[in-house]
Amino acid sequence: MKNNKLLPYLLVSPYLIHLMVFVAFPVIFSIYLTFNKWNIISPMEFIGFGNFLRVFQDALFFKALYNTLKFLIVHIPLQIIVALLLAEILNQKIKFRPFFRAAFFLPVVVSGVVVSMLWQQLYGFDTGILNRMLSTLGFGKVGWLVDPNMAMVSIAVMATWKNVGLYVILFLVGLQTVPPQYYEAADLEGANHWQKFWHITLPMINPTIFMVVILSTIGGFSLFIEPYIMTGGGPLNSTLSAVLYIYKQAFTNYHMGYSATLGFFFAFIILLVVVVQKRFIEKGES
Amino acid sequence: MKKLILYITLIIGSLAFIYPFYWMVTASLVPENEIESLTLLPHSISFNSYIQMFEKIPIGRAFFNSIFVATMVTGGVLVFCSMVGYALSRLRFVGRNLIFYIIIFTMTLPFQITLIPNYIIMVKLGWTDTFLALIVPYLINAFAIIMFRQVFQTIPQDLIDAARIDGCSELRIIFQILWPNIIPSLVTVGIITFMATWNEVLWPLIVIRDENLMTMPQLVTLFAVGGRAESQLGVKLASATILALPIVIAYLFFQKYFIQSMASAGMKE
After folding, report:
1. B1 and B119 co-located in one domain
2. CB 3.0–4.6 Å: which of A3, A219, B217, B257 could bond B201 by disulfide?
């Protein structure tokens, strides 16, 4: 009998150990780190709120936030529009649907490393295929990754290309939950294509849109390997992302205390943004 | 007419997703000086980029490292998370709901906050430059626990009771009686975990410096940004192709499962 009482705890013990070592302790330790200056080698030095004050005066912290915002402003709408368009088409009676679906999904399974290396070449200024195409059509070359105003937009477009296949599938699932009677009733009322889309489809797939917004937001704040490979955060720090900045502070400058503080702030901002988005969308629903 | 527009959109769309990969593969197979003019068909084929790449980086070793790490993590997640999921759904004990809420709560915790402290833990444990650093932190996954908890809830109690009367231990119930009944969930969790581990690159970049222990994405990344490719494009693209190949082959064979798994994972979050 005693054995039976202990058993559930034995079964959940892997989780509890993991929770203690890799979640609870790190969170507490990161709070502790934010009050210290530490390069891992020499002893920690207590500096009170020094790291916090530094964040508010750190131009690069705000630059990384601004870059993330820029990324999201391009990425989220583009992702929703492209995914919805492709899902709408795939939801019609279409031949070869599995093929198209599989093609759109291909970049989702491939490593971000591959996608970044590949697009770095497509975006090349002189010999990249995009600029070669533009030249052939008689347009000027675009500084996809070398123009500070353009670089983050280019990365946002690439990220859309990589992820959109997943959202096509999610929207497709959402579209298939709409009862066909709704459309039939609308047809009787003489509604046109746009009206049906606007008044029936869109409200029904609102939860999916919400999910896309949240996942894309988290993705934007987690951006790392793309700028790491393609631009190193440049030109002029215009593609410095939140995680890339944390990484650089920790492993280029060995500012462990400060980079933990950055992690703390970015995590807080992510939660804040997601909560605000949630409120906003729930209000839109009611 | 309307159908035609739809098909044209779909074909342009799928070309936009497939052509870049086609270009990458062909660019890795032509002589270096041809890459910049390559659009569709190569003029000549050369395996020079691959030969050079195999000479420059231990990609074969990295492949086996990746296989080893991803297999260990996937196996661990399936075993440990189904144990936890089973306890949370089928056993009664004090603190059960609390643990469940903690799991939900920790799922919302952004990883940015634990990244640096976790690195320091690895340093203190002496796990940097070992496979332990790549495997152990990933053995538990909140998403997988939730998934298993949910599917175990759907199993009839009779099945479990009958097994208990036969004298089965709880572990045997989980792995011998219940696992055969939840194969789709095992496949879903397995594919997602394997793929996520296979493609993970930030954490390896932080905890591994020894080239012999690197997984493929890390090795290829450092090859791409470091100076060793001597700015030869073909060699870099060859390494990117080799990195993409295993998962693309797996995808071609198990396409349906990949898409279903990723979709159901997306829904959960």
Report:
1. no
2. B217
